[in-house]
Design brief:
Elements: E1 6-9, H1 13-34, H2 42-55, E2 57-60, H3 63-67, E3 72-75, H4 81-94, E4 100-103, H5 110-114, E5 123-127, E6 137-141, H6 148-160, E7 164-168, H7 176-193, H8 198-208, H9 215-222, H10 224-237, H11 248-255
The protein binds 3-hydroxybutanoyl-coenzyme A.
Length: 272
């Protein structure tokens, strides 16, 4: 959307086909808006926007072909430290020396992920928010090894994407998830205790705190597996922090494959 040639690398063509569908749908919403706006040249401008954005995007399972010439690699895989380290160790072997690496992790230490590479100085965090085309925030994370040059390049990259960039030390959850994830967990504990219903808790936070979604709607939107991965990881590392404990209800839904919107059911049911 912002003019960068981009490759989306994933593990299978089946996953990539799903991604293509989601990206086209999302771009379609933006195209629709542009088609009614003189600023973007109505329909003609909207069609040019859509086709040129899609032309700049390659979807592939061949990581090496694109990483060799990339200026930046942003990893956004499963929230598991070993998987991330393994991937970055591989990418590090093929990427050009100038290439900057960033992780979109929402809860794991950037410095530990970076330790799997030989470019700790050109490594940082870029944490985006769902839905990425709409949410204006980007958390830009600097470790003790990230150079000023790398950090400034990441900030510039984020600003050019149209994001409001904030920075935070390499601490669990950075700013947003450190506050948001315990809040989601507390909402689940509240429902488990029977203090209030899921529907009433959501209604309360939407109309009493002016949040666009209640905590259960938001957890379903983010993915219950993601919320559980984050809480489990923190709970293991900080067993004395009560706010990081997970809950039987969340554990059960995840074990049943009810991961929220993406599987058609989480705390609520959705049309697939
Ligand atoms: N792609 C492109 N545009 C989209 C979109 C998408 N996927 N989803 C929504 N939009 C656009 C719509 O076209 C619409 O644009 P307009 O206002 O210019 O017409 C606008 O966004 C609002 O969408 P809708 O009218 O369809 O729906 P809502 O007003 O209900 O908003 C929402 C939907 C933006 C998702 C809103 O409910 C919201 O802000 N929810 C909270 C999201 C949130 O808190 N995200 C952070 C999650 S935490 C996270 O991501 C961190 C991770 O590490 C866990």
């Amino acid at each position: 959307m912002k003019g960068h040639d981009t490759a989306l690398v994933d593990v299978s063509d089946e996953v990539l086909a799903k991604s293509k569908l989601a990206i086209t749908k999302s771009l379609g919403r933006i195209q629709e808006k542009f088609s009614q706006d003189p600023k973007y040249g109505y329909l003609e401008g909207a069609e040019v926007f859509m086709s040129s954005a899609l032309k700049r995007l390659t979807l592939t399972t061949d990581m090496k072909a694109f990483v060799e010439s990339a200026d930046i690699v942003i990893e956004s895989i499963v929230e598991n430290i070993d998987a991330k380290k393994k991937l970055f160790a591989e990418v590090d072997k093929v990427a050009a020396p100038k290439c900057i690496f960033a992780s979109n992790t929402s809860s794991l230490p950037i410095a530990e992920i970076a330790s799997a590479t030989n470019r700790k100085d050109r490594f940082g965090g870029l944490h985006f928010f769902n839905p990425v085309p709409v949410m204006r925030l980007l958390e830009v994370i600097k470790t003790d090894d990230t150079t000023e040059g790398t950090f400034n390049a990441l900030m510039k990259f984020g600003t050019n994407l149209g994001k409001h960039c904030v920075t935070c030390k390499d601490t669990p959850g950075f700013i947003v998830n450190r506050l948001l994830v315990p809040y989601l967990g507390e909402a689940v504990h509240m429902a488990e205790r029977g203090d209030a219903t899921i529907a009433d808790i959501d209604m309360a936070m939407k109309h009493g705190a002016a949040y666009p979604m209640g905590p259960f709607e938001l957890a379903d939107f983010v993915g219950l597996d993601v919320v559980k991965f984050i809480l489990d990881g923190w709970n293991e590392k900080f067993p004395d922090v009560e706010l990081f404990r997970t809950s039987p209800l969340l554990d059960r839904l995840v074990s049943e494959g009810k991961l929220g919107r993406k599987t058609g059911e989480g705390f609520y049911k959705y049309d697939k």
